[in-house]
Design brief:
- The chain has 168 residues and is mainly β.
- The N terminus is likely disordered.
- The protein has 2 domains: 52 residues, no CATH class; 104 residues, Barwin-like endoglucanases (Beta Barrel).
- It is 10% helix and 35% strand.
- The protein starts with 6 loop residues before the first helix and ends with a strand.
């Protein structure tokens, strides 16, 4: 795959003095990554070949996990209004957003987990949500839902429910 960018855009991103009209990029994108992602926050600049004028950028393969469903997952709820999420955003308790367990949440600010869309299935209902926070107390595959999202699946009095989820 090759992309051309205007020199002014590239010079703002990479401090290189190249006087060509456009730049040429070799971007390696594994098939699985292309299928499941439309942005590549984890792309890595690997090297610039001065003899050919080509920037080489590698995008790691999306993890196998990102294509799996997570069954028998534990879902709880929390008050998201207490501050800024791990992704740096604020929300109301009615937002359809979740906190992902620490084992699966990819760190960074904002981390690559931030903004990923998921589909949650529980108690015969299905809802879409966005990952916006980290849940240190959740087990692997567990999610902490906003009060509003949790109430779409069960009464808040239930406290904990199980279900499945997957990336969409």
């Amino acid at each position: 795959m090759h992309f051309s960018f205007f020199p002014t855009l590239l010079s703002a991103v990479l401090p290189l003095a190249v006087s060509a009209a456009s730049y040429r990029f070799n971007i390696t994108v594994p098939d699985a990554s292309r299928e499941k992602r439309d942005s590549f926050n984890d792309a890595r600049f690997t090297y610039y070949d001065i003899t050919t004028g080509v920037f080489n950028i590698t995008v790691p393969d999306a993890s196998r996990e990102k294509r799996d469903s997570f069954n028998d997952a534990r879902f709880t709820y929390y008050d998201i209004t207490t501050g800024v999420t791990a992704c740096g955003w604020t929300f109301s308790n009615n937002a359809e957003v979740v906190a992902l367990n620490s084992q699966q949440f990819v760190s960074g600010f904002p981390g690559p987990s931030c903004g990923n869309r998921i589909r949650i299935d529980a108690n015969g209902k299905s809802m879409d949500a966005v990952i916006v926070d980290e849940c240190p107390g959740c087990p692997y595959a567990g999610l902490d839902l906003t009060e509003g999202l949790f109430s779409q699946f069960a009464d808040l009095d239930a406290g904990v429910i199980t279900g499945s989820w997957d990336y969409i």
